[in-house]
Amino acid sequence: MIFEERQIEKNNFSSRAIFLFALVGVSFLAVLFQVFSLQVSSYTSYELAALNNKNYAIPIQPLRGEILDRKGHPIVRNEPTFDLITQPDLITQPELFLELIKPVIYLSEVEEVQYLKKFKEKAFVNKELVLKKNLSPEEIARFNVRSFNFTNAFIGKRHRRISDYPQVFAHVLGYTSRSNNQYDLSMEIPRSHWVDAELTYANGLIQGKTGLEETYNQHLSGTHGTRVYEINSRGRLVKTLEYYPPEKGLDLHTHLDIKAQISAANALGDRKGAVVAIDLKSGGINVLYSAPTYSVNKLSNGMSVDEFQDLIKDPNKPFFNRALQGRYPPASTIKPAIGMFGLTNQLINWREEIDDPGFFTLPENGRIYRGWKKGGHNNVNLKKALMVSSNTYFFKLAYQSDMKDLASYFSSLGFGSSVCRDCYEEDSVFVPSPEWKYKNFNVPWFTGDTVNIGVGQGYLVATPMQLANYISILANKGNLPAPALVKVENQSLDGNKSQEISLSKQDWVKMHDALTAVIESDFGTARSIRNLKDFQVAGKSGTAELVSLDSKEAYLEVRDKELLRDHSIIIAFGPMPNPQYAVSVVIENGESGGAVAGPVAIEVLKSLLNE
Amino acid sequence: MSNRSAKIYFDPYLFFSLFALSALGLFFLYSASNADTSIVLKQSVYVFLGFAIMLSVSQADPDVFRRTSLVFIIFSVLLLGITFLIGPEINGAQRWVRLGPFSFQSSELLKLALPIFLANFLFDKRLPIQSREIVISLAVIFIAFILVARQPDLGTGLIVGLSGLFVLFLSGLSWSFMGGAFIALIICSPLIWNFLLQPFQQQRIATLFNPESDPFGAGWNIIQSKIAIGSGGIFGKGFGEGSQTQLNFLPETKTDFIFSVIGEEFGFFGVVILLSIYFFVLMRCLYLALNARDRFCRLVIGGLTLTFAANLIINLCMVVGLLPVVGMPLPFISRGGSSLISLFFAFGIITSMGTHKKFLPQ
After folding, report:
1. Which residues constitute the domain of residue B302?
2. Which has fewest Cβ within 10 Å: A14, A281, A609, B11?
């Protein structure tokens, strides 16, 4: 090539080389710009992303608070149990490990298979694996002696929720069980991390499902702790970065009385029914018992499917909380309320007497409403009517009453609403009224319906809780703090509403006098129980008719079939004249009210009074 | 003449900046390998060997490479063929050839052989170069590309292709031809997408534009790399302190993604220093190319340097999320013998061509 050509070539090369190297320079700038935007402009979000990658926070389960009775004795507590926990990461040959540990602790075939199944995964991520739950004291002792041989295993303390009175308090306590709802409690720990929670209970993450355990779940639960692990990309735990201990849940101080609850259960025996007792000063519920019952310990800590199915299928419905959900006609126990209504509306007074021939004839159509005693009680005034439980008197009084007014009077006594502030799934039932009847049956209200209500039959039904609330209002002469299971200082529920009923002071004295006479006088219908105690008690018994019977033959036939027999009911308070406690007892198919339900009420009052 | 034989052909700027890169590389590798000293020791042996090769190669006269260029490219192609027939299959690709205790990635040789061969073919042609030469050059480039790309190793295939195209461009390919080729490429791109790219390669390109669409699959690498670099901030988390690196969230820390390790542990500061060294090397090579003794040397220095630059930029763009993920190490830093040896070999040639002067002007 000649010189000029070489020069042209060289220039040509130079410009092209510089062009390409300029492109390289531009690319460098692009990279630098991108790195700058990642490291400087978006630093915060990438730093967070890197932390989210490596930080693995898990919750540490807190201990639940205990539930205590009114004297501070635990009804439910946390009982330690011991599990054998292994660190698969430190075990090279799981089969060999199992052979070595078998002489120390008993292992079933299933436990071995389960262990080997989960082993590899846990070893891979360096997480603990439970080999055996609920070790016996012998196993613990044997392991402790040989623990130097097992550096890859240790005994871990867990807890069980245990009540020492699992049957007696089953309905009111309720049970706990494993639950997924806790996930929502915490925002800072992602949902998926809860499967790795550090457990305090052998059952895992538990939550109250019914009863007090449910109502006060938040109060009892406490606050979970947090352990933040550093993990690698495979999810393997590398080390602990941060640790915040859990806070134990608060204890729950209730008004319940262990002794009284047990005496209620013993007095009821194996009969079906319910007992509710209320402390008149505070409105606190001392007894809330429903029979038949079940073991809350078994339900909380693992019950076999068969056992559970048996309970579910039991015709006596042990899971059914009769005290809060059973609907019973109040029968004659409603008579004091009717009487009070009559006094308030000046339909009657204490002196005025009527003739009781043993039945009441409805003027409109001549229909006969019978009393419980053939021939009647002759001349009766309000006191005598209550004492001997004259039906005629109250049929007549109801007949004179306006149903709308009567219904609203019932409502002010707590009927038709849930009266307990913190009971689990209390049935509010309803108060019958003309509108109610039309809405439900599309039939108008008849005067006869009101007449029936006068003796607590017909459409009127109430729960034992409502009956206890009603008798407590009476016992307190018109006002009562709303009943509650838990003492005010740790009630997280709203409103300390109290219920009020007005009646003149004299009327209250006379009413208490009349109701005392029901039990304490020679002619009272519940006099059979007067000798069971050494203090005076006021009250009213009732026999709720399940089948309306017109002939004596039919009645005798029904008596033979237990399930069709009448329910016996008593509502009572004492000691008179300055009552402290009120109680309601319903015994299903127990027949005569005073004689059957009465002794149960007396047992409970006695137990509450000699604290 | 005695004067000439005593001379050692050596470029201090290149030598010391490459020394700095290699030393930093070993340093970074120690952290990237979670403090695995055996890996670092093995790599330092390669570095030592590399420098020895570079120094030896740079003593040879440029004419030696010119005369042996045909033999060299034939040898490279044969080696590639042997790999294709008998090489062990690793991750579904046959790229390696075993020479005694060493495994060698056979495509590395072609990256050197192709630009030298083309430079030799084109250096004495008149300007502007004729269609005949263009067609022959393109055919050779295409064959080389296909041979490597079929391994399959699209990344290296592209680099090999580029190494040829750089020489062709530098030797005076007309602008109009290039414009036409560029338009043709754009038109053909759907065909390339559908027929040339494997599904996993299509996936990688797709995830570049939306890595979050598949955060645990194909997008994982890009996302984790960006997190690593971004979380490094201005000064980095410190040597051995990068959580993305040390806890294995970042993939391929020792090879393709070692730049992310540097970004995470040394921050923007570290990145700027590293890029500055690279940039200095490139500028020094441009200087050598512009001042080389003849057209052949200019073309070879230019071709090899730009190949090196392309390799570097593709890796950088990939780890910062500007290009799809392709297997491409960071030159002088990533772990691996083949690429390091071939790099030193290339810089040996560059030094030789940049330092040898003609005694007798033509």
Report:
1. 9-59+211-356
2. A281
- At B138-188, the pLDDT tens digits run 999 999 988 888 777 778 888 999 999 999 999 888 788 888 888 888 888
Confidence of residue A560 (pLDDT cuts 50, 70, 90): low
> For residue B300, is it within any domain?
yes
Nearest CA-CA partner of B111 in B331, B333, B318, B279? B331
Rounded-to-integer distance, Cα A288 and Cα A291, Å? 10
List CB contacts (< 8 A) between A38 and chain B.
226, 229-230, 263, 320
- pLDDT confidence of residue B1: 39
Answer yes or no: do A40 and B322 touch at CB < 8 A.
Answer: no
First to last CA, chain B: 19
Is A50's CB within 8 Å of B231's CB?
A: yes
Chain A residues with CB-CB distance to B299 below 8 A? 13
Choose from B320, B323, B328, B350 for mutation: most chain A CBs within 10 A: B320
CA distance linking residue B171 with residue B122, whole number of Å: 7
Q: Would you place residue A149 in the very low, low, confident or very high pLDDT band (cuts 50, 70, 90)?
A: confident
Residue for token pair 């295993």 = A153
How many other C-beta atoms lie within 10 A of the C-beta of residue B136? 14
In this prediction, residue A193 has a pLDDT band, given cuts at 50, 70 and 90, of confident
- Total domains present in chain B: 1
Instruction: Provide the whole-model pTM.
Output: 0.75
B256 domain-assigned: yes
* B227: number of Cβ within 10 Å: 26
Residue B196: partners with Cβ closer than 8 Å, 6 or more residues away: B149
| pLDDT-based confidence at residue A370 (cuts at 50, 70, 90) | confident
From the list A13, A18, A38, the residue facing B230 with the nearest CB is: A38
CB contact under 8 A, B282 and A53: no
Instruction: Examine residue B135 and state whether it is found in any structural domain, yes or no.
Output: no
Span of A288-297, A489-498, B185-194 with lowest mean pLDDT: A489-498
Q: How far apart are CA B309 and CA A353, in angstroms?
A: 119
Decide if B185 is inside a domain: no
Backbone angles phi, psi at B250, to 5 degrees: -85, 130
For A451-460, what is the mean pLDDT?
A: 91
Q: Determine which of B127, B212, B216, B227 to mutate to test the interface with A (most A C-beta atoms within 10 Å).
A: B227
A230 touches chain B (CB under 8 A): yes
Give me the pLDDT at residue B89, please: 64
Smallest Cβ distance to A238: which of B171, B224, B247?
B247
- Does pLDDT of B220 surpass 90? no
Which residue from A minimizes the CA distance to B283? A21
B248: chain A residues, CB-CB within 8 Å: 232-234
Q: Give all domains of chain A, ordered by start, each with its CATH number.
A: 57-253 (3.90.1310.10), 258-311+324-609 (3.40.710.10)
Nearest residue of B to residue A231, measured between CA atoms: B247
- Main-chain dihedrals φ then ψ at residue B96, nearest 5 degrees: -110, 145
| Chain B residues close to A43, C-beta within 8 Å | 230-231, 233-234
